[in-house]
Amino acid sequence: MKRFTLSITAFALASVAVVPFVYSAPNFDGLRSDTLDKTAVDFDKLRRENLDKDAVAVDFDKLRRENLDKDAVAVDFDKLRRENLDKDLIAVDFDQLRRENLDKDAVAVDFDKLRRENLDKDWIAVDFDKLRRENLDKDVAMV
Fold first, then answer.
1. Does the predicted TM-score (pTM) go above 0.85?
2. Nearest residue to 133 (alpha-carbon basis) of 125, 122, 141
3. CA diameter of the chain
4. What whole-number distance in Å separates Cα of residue 91 and Cα of residue 142?
5. How far apart are CA 7 and CA 22, in angstroms?
């Protein structure tokens, strides 16, 4: 009987502890429907409002005609071209300049000669195979 009473008491205490948590669980269906109602956008209404806004109606044909009719500076490009061609500016003869540069007695560089001289120099000759073998031997010694 003592066991029965203890089990009933334990069950009562457990139910008292668990029941508030069950009722406090959020109602996700209700929350979802509330959120959907809040964020519902009436696109037809927005479309009608935007169509009704004729405050800033731009007549592009009218603007185009006005721009074409303007007595702005009319540029005669053919005339400008002729004036520039007729100018007595310094005429540059690029062929003559090229010939002068080729004929100059400036320092002529013989690249083949320079290459041969550099190859013949007694620079420090590096034996890469020897260096490779030494490095491999060091790695083996370290292991």
1. no
2. 141
3. 129
4. 75
5. 22
Radius of gyration of the chain (CA): 48
CA dihedral over 84, 86, 90, 93, signed as positive or negative: positive
94: amino acid identity, one letter: F
User: How far apart are alpha carbons 105 and 102 in whole angstroms?
Assistant: 8
Give the C-alpha distances (Å, rounded to integers) separating 101 from 70, 90, 104: 53, 19, 5
Q: Which of 20, 39, 17, 36 is nearest to 28 (CA)?
A: 36
* Cβ within 8 Å of residue 68, ≥6 positions away: none
| 40 SS3 class | coil
The yes-or-no verdict on residue 119 having pLDDT over 80 is no
- Outline where DSSP puts E strands in 1-143: none
Neighbours of 133 (CB within 10 A): 11
The tens digit of pLDDT for each residue in 85-112 reads 777 666 777 888 888 887 775 566 778 8
